[in-house]
Amino acid sequence: NAGVMQNPRHLVRRRGQEARLRCSPMKGHSHVYWYRQLPEEGLKFMVYLQKENIIDESGMPKERFSAEFPKEGPSILRIQQVVRGDSAAYFCASSPTEGQGYEQYFGPGTRLTVT
Amino acid sequence: EDKVVQSPLSLVVHEGDTVTLNCSYEVTNFRSLLWYKQEKKAPTFLFMLTSSGIEKKSGRLSSILDKKELFSILNITATQTGDSAVYLCAVERGNKLVFGAGTILRVKS
To answer: What does the mean pLDDT of chain A come to?
Structure first.
């Protein structure tokens, strides 16, 4: 059973460009969570999605950030008009059911660098 | 505001030493406390604690939760260089995990 997959693993964008981060959950998992880790800081919750629904986006900046988890295909975290402060590691986690923390399995992360 | 605070921020020990990592929290609607190990990649799950005073153990690692004083400790005995990592504490609140900043552990041979 393949784990949570994220791609790309590293992404470099210039200021003002768009970044698209992809997350394929573990097989059988229908719940996806996105977290951001800034240098020297812990992971910060951004958004929780189920298939075709955003359940909780309380940690996501109101502007430039959006997330989706379509019926088919991976979950996408989209950052428009990136700025230097968006440089971070973005981790995705998935779970088979709602809210049980120990069942959140993490992917390897995408390291976004904005130049 | 929800808060998870880990101490120390970093720690350097020699192989064979015993270390204790601390995690205190102020989180509403607490469900559980989790410990993860992170080595330049995905955080890997170590323990989940829901009840006070019950020690969870896995090999040289053990952890315990105090829900009255709102803290947890992670102990590692007979440390090895492979234990070098960032140790993250997280509290489950509703649908999300609230993480501390982590403790960077370096074990020297």
So the answer is: 91
In B, which residues are within 8 Å of A44 by CB distance?
99
Enumerate the residues of chain B whose CB falls inside 8 A of the CB of residue A35: 97, 99
Q: Is B33 exposed, middle or buried (0-12, 13-18, 19+ CB in 10 A)?
A: buried
Q: How many CA atoms lie within 13 A of A101 on its CB side?
A: 25
Q: With beta carbons less than 8 A apart as the criterion, state whether A43 and A36 touch.
A: yes
State yes or no: pLDDT of A99 exceeds 60. Answer: no
3-state helix, strand, coil in chain B (%, to 5): 5, 60, 35
Q: Which amino acid is at A27?
A: K
B11-37 tens-digit pLDDT: 999 999 999 999 999 988 888 999 999
pLDDT in tens, A7-55: 999 999 999 999 999 999 998 888 999 999 987 778 999 999 998 999 9
Q: What is the DSSP letter of B81?
A: G
